[in-house]
Amino acid sequence: MSVFLIFSICLLKEGFAAVVDTSATVDARLNEDVELGCRLQESKSINQITWQKITGSAVNNLATYSEYFGAKVLEPYEQRINISTASLNVTSIRIKGVRSEDEGCYRCLFSEYPTGSVTGKTCLVVHELYDITTKSSNISATEDTYFLMCSATGKPAPEVFWRTSENKTLTAEEQRTDNGNGRVTVISNLTLKYSDGVYGGVDCIVKHPALQNAESRHFVLLYEKTDEPAKKQGSYLVEVVIFSIFGAVVLYCIYRYKTKGTNIHKEMMERNQCGPLFRV
After folding, report:
1. Bridge partners of 160?
2. What residue intervals traverse the membrane (predicted)?
């Protein structure tokens, strides 16, 4: 065990009253870099700063800084953690490429020999979001019924919902599966019929702390709302044309019937008038 580590452990046995300014919790997205910081509010003659990670009942030393030994990051954290000190009253560590196992509480210790040490604690929360999966199928071509599925896995559980192109939220069936370690898979199933009046397309919206902005997946439906008035108008015009033709035919038949009847009557009258001229 190195001299500076022994020095740090010895100082932890004593303590003095002081306040450390730090964030209670720090949020980080998976694989991004994050910085944890502490600042001693009172001016003290600090000899050494130590950073530790609390895992259950175990406490692991991560890094130290002292005037005599300088900065030192312990194994196996050398490649992923940097410690910096603006002064012996201000310190921070930077964790590169945050992993799931980095989640937990960290402690900074300001040690003053021989008075003792004062501590601050900050807890890191790692937000994880994995692939967003979608699926669509036309389950009834005759009724224009569509089945849409959208799922996402994350820690904490992601929020998954549906919205139309007109910004209307739709009701869907949701299933949740607990995968352990705080990871939850959310599956949202949406069934749409032509008669539901949803045209153009719908979007699956996923919200999660790991996203700066909500992500969406677009589904295009085969029927368009803009086509509906045209379809109705076209159907109306066809009906008008058919009835017009039918009416014209009926009127023509009536006209022909009346015309024919008039001609027959006229012919009979002419025969009656001219009849005696042909008698012998």
Report:
1. 206
2. 236-255
Rounded average pLDDT over 39-47 = 85
Residues 88 and 176 in one domain: no
Among the candidates 96, 127, 158, a domain finishes at: 127
User: What is the total count of domains within the chain?
Assistant: 3
pLDDT per position as a tens digit, 159-189: 999 999 888 999 999 999 999 989 999 999 9
Tell me, rounded to whole angstroms, the distance of Cα 250 from its chain centroid: 63
Please indicate, yes or no, whether residues 67 and 38 belong to a single structural domain of this protein: yes
- Tell the burial category of 93 from Cβ atoms under 10 Å away from its Cβ (0-12, 13-18, 19+): buried
Q: Is residue 133 part of a domain?
A: no
Q: Is the pTM of this model over 0.90?
A: no
Neighbours of 111 (CB within 10 A): 28
Domain that holds residue 181: 141-224
Which of 51, 84, 49, 52 shows the shortest CA–CA distance to 67?
A: 49
